[in-house]
Amino acid sequence: MSYFLKLFIAIALSFYLLSCNGSSGNLMELNSTIEINDDDSKDSIILKAAHVIPTSNQFEALKNEYIAFIHFGPNTFTRMEWGSGMEDPASFDLQNLDTDQWCEAMVAGGMKMVILTVKHHDGFCLWQSRYTTHGTMSSPYKNGKGDVLKELSESCAKYGLKLGVYLSPADLYQIENERGLYGNLSKYTERVIPRRVDERPFENQTTFKFIVDDYNEYFLNQLFELLTEYGPIHEVWFDGAHPKRKGGQQYNYLAWKELIQTLAPEAVVFGKQDIRWCGNEAGKTRHSEWNIIPYQKNPALMNRFGDLTAKELGERAQLYEGKFLHYQQAETNTSIREGWFYRDDTDQGVRSADDVFDMYERSVGGNSTFLLNIPPNREGQFSPRDVAALRESGERISATYGHNILSGAKGPKNVLDGNMDTYVLLENTKTIEINTKEPVTINRFVIQESIQTHSERVERHTMEAWINDEWKEIATGTNIGYKRILRFPEVSSDRFRFRVTAERYTPAISTISAHYYKMRPPQLEVKSDVNGAITIQLKQHKFGWKQHGEDFLSNLNKGLEIRYTTDGSIPTHASELYTGTFNFSSGIVHACAFDNDIAGPLTKAFIGLVKTDWKLLSASSNVADNNGKQAFDGSVNTFWQSKPNEHHSNLAIDLGAIYTINGFMYTPPLDNKEGMIEKGVLKISFDGRTWQAVETFEFGNLINDPSPRRHFFDKPVKTKYIRIETIETAQGSSSSAIAEIDLL
């Protein structure tokens, strides 16, 4: 019997059963993995994909939505991102630890689980392992009795957080140590797990027998400790990083999996069959994050899983190429700091609450889990800046999504009851209409499919509002899956309509809710180029690590208006609307962002003379490519820098014409502390040879605040040439530097 005849009979039988028992919206058995046959057509492959569902553990993990990562260890004290494995355990000089403070901050941020790096690539263990001395047992913390995992476990129980562990398969200590087990070419023999340690017997008497080598035995013994002595573990996190290899070491993941599934039956495994990496460490999200992924082999039997980093993973074109269709959700991971480990509170940047909140909406609202790393400092606490960003973003999550504006609305009960176990099948009609008692103002929609009963099936959808006696499209999206958050400029209406415009099979919509994000109109920044072209934009938060490429301020502030003035007055709703670049020379631009009646912070920008005709007259010297022209090229990202150890370095500029000036503005280099001019003198000339000192200037705190500084003269002066001469530099630097000079 041909496959097509079998499929026809199965479909016919299904329709018969459905006609007798009512429609279920499914044509075949649901499973987390479904095999593709050689004679499957493209249509039958898509039909199978529409019946792939998460396991119960995966579904519970999806409901966590927003979880924390904790990178902590010797690197925290050595200020390294990756340790060498040869660190002296005494370097982990932890004197105090406050895991209650961690958990309190994480709960305030809206997180539901925390994953601790109990062993990073350096091999240092944050718990009292029986099988090594390279860890807290050899550190000063509590005289070698400290157990970070134990304290965190107790705090998690206190604050209602789930707990996960990251046990690095790579282990530089076991590689570099003469007696190390990693890659020691030991034979594969039958081993009993856990290996007995008489002075520290296990309360859990479960044992396993595996044919493994020394390192896999070591790894399994440590997994046994972690999964039996610290309460329920809900996620085990493995990555594929290999700082160094030795002896052709292989990992026996199938043995690890058997142990995990036995000892932690509620746990999901990251980096393997349950959860995959999003493909970057920046918090970047895919436009369409499908969790039904094609595989060439049965994932249940795979020992190794590669990283999936392609731009598209689960679109139809990729599914056609698979041999198995498998449910494997994504975790979108990144760090709140510039790096995975804490370094300092001066140079290491911290993400803004805007950035964190935007990543939350893009990841959780894009069918994935948001995993945010918060590295504790050397005091054993989260630093104040990290806590502030967590708390503020958590307050926004709660204020925005803690209330469903559609509560009490008329429409299908099963999508408005907030219950993920109920749903509406969109068989004959592909629309859901919802009416509110009176007009409501919204700018967010949350939509969820019933993925545990009907998979991910929506490929495209749209939301509409009844405005001026007709349906107006307010937002569109591609797939939905576990959750899709649609963001759009605010609208007011009492009628809304959800429509599926493309699908894989009959969709089941579990929940639809509407929300309002009360925007905080952001600070603006005004920029001028050498030709006097003025641009006004949302002020970007500086964060220089693994850029995700998203304009998170624009994402959050859809529908804002920017108003500005050039006559010295304060902008109002009636002021000029900024629609694009405009020309302006020498004066003050005031700008403000408006969200309806709410005004953002006022920005006041001093705009200097147009620099089109300026020429470099002379520079006492310059290093490498940092020439004098870069001091007036209109970019704060370039700068002039003199050679070191030069007495009274100077820079002179030909303005091209005679001007009356009231002062000047000095911008120091943003990312180079060498050469910031703390004290100097400005001189003027009409011939470029004879110079007259106008005034001495002095700027303070440049190192900690490298912002533009202004100096106004006691009275206006006329000149055709100017020269800046250095008297003193910040911190006694031996050279001088100017990112930009502007004349006012």
Features:
disordered N terminus; 744 residues; single chain; alpha+beta; globular; six-stranded antiparallel sheet; 19% helix; eight-stranded parallel sheet
Distinct helical segment count: 15
What is the distance, rounded to the nearest whole angstrom, between the alpha carbons of the first and last residues?
88 Å
Share of residues in helices: 10-25%
Rg measurement, Å: 31 Å
- Largest sheet descriptor: 8 strands, parallel
Proportion in β-strands = 25-35%
Low-confidence stretches: 3-22
Instruction: Look at the helices and sheets and give the structural class.
Output: alpha+beta
**Which shape, going by the Cα principal axes?**
globular
Name the average pLDDT. Answer: 93
**Strand line-up across the major sheet:** 8-7-4-3-2-13-12-9
Number of strands: 35
What can be said about this structure in brief?
With 744 residues, the protein is α+β, with helices and mostly antiparallel strands.
Question: Would you mind describing this structure in some detail?
Answer:
Helix content is 19%, strand content 31%. The chain is built from 15 helices and 35 strands. The strands form eight sheets. An eight-stranded parallel sheet has the order 8-7-4-3-2-13-12-9. Helix 5 crosses helix 6 (148-159). The N and C termini lie far apart (88 Å). Residues 3-22 have low confidence and may be disordered.
